[in-house]
Each structure stands twice: as structure tokens, then as C-alpha cells.
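Below is just one:
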Amino acid sequence: MFNRKKLLLVLLLGLVSLTIILATNYKHAPNRKATVKENTKTAKAVGQENKEDESPLQLVQERMHSGSVKQVPWEKDPDFLKAQKENNALTMMAAYRTVLPDPLPGEESNVHLGARYLRGTVLKPGEVFSQNLTVGPYSQWRGFKEGPVYLGSQLSTTTGGGVCKIASTLYNVAVLCNLPVVERHPHSMPVPYVPYGQDATVNYGAKDIKFMNDLSHPILIWAQGVDNNLYIAFYGKSNPPQVEWHHKVLKIEKAANIYRNNWSLPEGEEKLVAHGMDGALIKSWITVKDKNGKSEVKELGSCWYSPMPAIIEKGRMAPSLSEQP
């Protein structure tokens, strides 16, 4: 009997001790639910800060695939090989590929046609190249179609719209070849196919892209459009110095959202029609390094790009007959 009572007493004391320990731990333990919520909030805040810290230049580069290339689609083209031999232009000085994101049919057609007009152009020493004189005028009788064009801060259409992709690509190749750029105009809004500060626009009779051949040998220009890709390369007798782009974001203006009703979408559903792009003031320059390792900095000025609003369609129920005017 004694042993039984003693055993029950030991068990009772152990149960009381365990209860005290659990209560103490619970009191001093952190609130797991609150901690998870707090961590989620912190992570979200950090994500927003990182997104705000990203420059529009970085955001564009993440979405695009444009840039200098070493391989081009015409390497075995008989016409190209013949032009190379005739002009003794056997060295690829620089080549650039511009990728057009979701191009309109007329836009892609105009870029391909412009590339055909440009292909085979020879720029002699001391000559100045002009896109408007070489590829333009951008009219229907020369085969150009309706394509997109920037009119101030609005996106519209015009005959020949899209040939600015040729101008931007030419600008990048000319800079990579360290050729003097005589005339270049940036767009009024950012473009989604080349980085901020590396674009060029043309308007026949008003704006042009021009650069000079200051070398002692001719430059052969070749171009080709392949689907939504535009390739342009310069050929000559010498390799250019090493050229590196630099950009500094001086100011950012956030892009707004424009909402449009779309009766064909389910109510409450949204569809992104066009990506928005933040406006920015961009300062650009290049460093040019010769074969001896000597560097030179060339300032390319600053460009202001107005923000391009995003266009979002929202699903709405069609109004009833009683609601219609």
C-alpha cells in the first residue's frame, strides 16, 4: 500500500512539473504566426525596395536580347562574299542584332524591306552615311507599309513606321566601330528593343541618323531581317578599338496605367495589352581603348524619355437594354 501511494505521488509531482515547464516555454516563446506575417511583410518591403532601386536601363536589359553579335545569317551568301572581295572588306568591324518584341505585321515588313535597301552600301573614306538618303523615302511606292511611330508621347501609325529599328541598330554599330556620329535623335519615349540612351529615330526630311567614315579604307554595310530580328554589320580592313557603353540614370518618372474596357473579357479579368516603361533622364558616354591599352572617354550627352504608359484592358459586363442610352 505504501509503495502504491508513493508511486502515485511521484507521478503527480512529475505531471505538475511538466505542466509548469510547458507553460513557461509557451509564455516566452515567440508568436510563430506573428513572426511569419512579419517576415512576409519584410520580404515584400525588400522586394519593393529592390524594384524601385532598379534603373529603367536594367529593367529593359532584362527583357531584351538585343546586343553585339559575332555570327550573322549571311556568312555564306554569294552576294555578300562577292561584295566583300570587291571592296577588300574582309574584316567584320562590328555587328549588332536588334530583337523586335511582338512586332506588328507592317513593322516587321518595313524593317525587312529597309534592310534590303541598306544591304551592300559602301561608304568611302571621308563620306557621310545618311539613312534617309539610303533607305528612304519611306513611302508606299517604295514598298513600305503602315507601321508604328511615336508622335510626342503617343504611339500612332504611319507609312514606313518601324524603320527606327534600323536607325537604332545603325547607331549602335557606328558607335562600336568608333565612327564619328554626325546626326542622331533619341525617341521621345523609351523603346523596348535597345537600352535607354542607345536608340535613334528618323523622320524623312526632318530627322536622320548620319555618321562619317573617318578611316583610310571603304566600309561595307550589310543587313538582313530574320523574323523579328534585325542584323546589321560593318566590314573593312581593320579592327576598331574596344568600345564600352556607359549610362547613368539621373532621374526616373514612373509610368502610369491606362485602363480600357473590353466587353469580350470576363468581368473583373484584366489583360495587359502593352507594357509600360518608366520615363528617365539618361546620361551616356563610352570608353574607347586602343590596342596599346590607352583609354579615352567620349561624352554622348543626355536624353530625356517621357514615360510610356501601360495599357490594360478590363473585363466588363455588357450594359443591359435599360442601361443603354
Notes: The first helix runs from residue 2 to 28. The radius of gyration is 31 Å.
